[in-house]
Design brief:
2 copies of one chain form a homodimer. The first copy, chain A, has about 210 residues and is mainly α. Chain A is elongated, with a radius of gyration of 20 Å. In chain A, helix 5 runs parallel beside helix 8. In chain A, about 70% of the residues lie in helices and about 0% in strands. Chains A and B meet through helix 7, helix 8, helix 9 and helix 10 of A and helix 6, helix 7, helix 8 and helix 9 of B. Chains A, B: It comes from Streptomyces gossypii.
Chain lengths: ~210, ~210
């Protein structure tokens, strides 16, 4: 995690000085593996995704990859969580859009890229694979809570107003459904019309 | 298909009389295979679903199964289409519910059972498998159009009113997203709250 070791930098001892670049390299390797894992999962699905393939794609030895992620389940769940966190960090720093429609567009866009495709493959595989099920369910709950907070901020919505919580939840469900509809073909023109209509339907409830 | 041969029954010739029971048996075998295929796909996903497994489950020889469905792709795409058609036929005969909320509940229920799970596994597999992609995309389009017609009828909605088409499309996207959220855990309490809120949001636009 960036920033994790930063507070210690100022008081590095002599023995630590030698290990710091090694830790940086290890962190960079880990990040490359996680990013490659999301790409691989999005493009090839769960059945086509292995640690060996991701290591090759990331230019890392299989042994190094397994040092970081002992199992296939470790690698791919960590990858979806890492990329989701990176994205939240970027979105948290943006100002809230001026209109409900612009905010709805940004929220819906979260479900049309490689991260959603990767997560979808993982969720669907988890529904049939006992070794994946409980950890993916927990991961989905964490990402879901974070996405809900992010959506409230983008919409400038206050959950204490009755109906707002369920309106935003339904909007996120709709965004997920729009992501699914975009899986086999480019669904952009239809999606834009749905977004415009629903933004106008929810604007009154939210502001 | 039931009813397909019914109009000919009254004028069966002597030579046809011997083959009719054989055709009935063949049709019954086909239906058992299709229903078993949807169950198998819903429970085991695409990677766990084979013609052999479905034949065993349906109590049909592997040879007979392959006579009806030469490839795995043939069997599972036909199965999702058949079960979707059976369901549409049932729903077409029901009267429109008295309230928008009851109609929204019925629409959302379409996405929480085995048919949705089976279809989801097929859609997601099709996004990575070239031999499955184009036929599943065409199948999804056909089922999507039929579901849209069904939703309009259940809601008593008229598409000529501006905004109605996109409102109903967004509702179906939300229903799909709610189905996805129900994949790894029972999401019923949250889903009921979202349905109540969204039904009230769309009632004015639709009626």
């Amino acid at each position: 995690m960036p920033g994790h070791s930063a507070p210690d930098r100022g008081r590095t001892t002599a023995s630590e000085r030698g290990t710091a670049p090694k830790q940086d390299r290890s962190r960079a390797t880990r990040q490359r593996l996680l990013e490659s894992a999301v790409t691989c999962l999005a493009e090839r699905g769960w059945s086509g995704s292995t640690v060996t393939l991701v290591a090759e794609h990331a230019g890392v030895s299989r042994g190094a990859a397994q040092h970081h992620f002992p199992t296939r389940e470790d690698l791919f769940t960590a990858a979806v969580e890492y990329v989701a966190e990176q994205r939240s960090a970027v979105l948290r720093d943006l100002p809230a859009p001026a209109t409900t429609e612009a905010a709805v567009e940004m929220i819906v866009d979260l479900y049309t890229g490689p991260l959603f495709r990767a997560a979808l493959h993982l969720w669907v595989a988890a529904s049939n694979e006992p070794q994946l099920g409980p950890r993916v369910a927990a991961l989905e709950a964490r990402i879901g809570r974070e996405t809900h907070r992010m959506a409230l901020a983008l919409l400038g919505a206050d959950e204490r107003t009755p109906g707002v919580r369920e309106t935003v939840q339904g909007l996120l469900d709709m965004a997920r459904g729009l992501g699914l509809a975009n899986l086999l073909r480019d669904d952009t023109p239809r999606r834009n019309r749905v977004v415009a209509q629903w933004a106008s339907l929810i604007a009154d409830t939210l502001r």
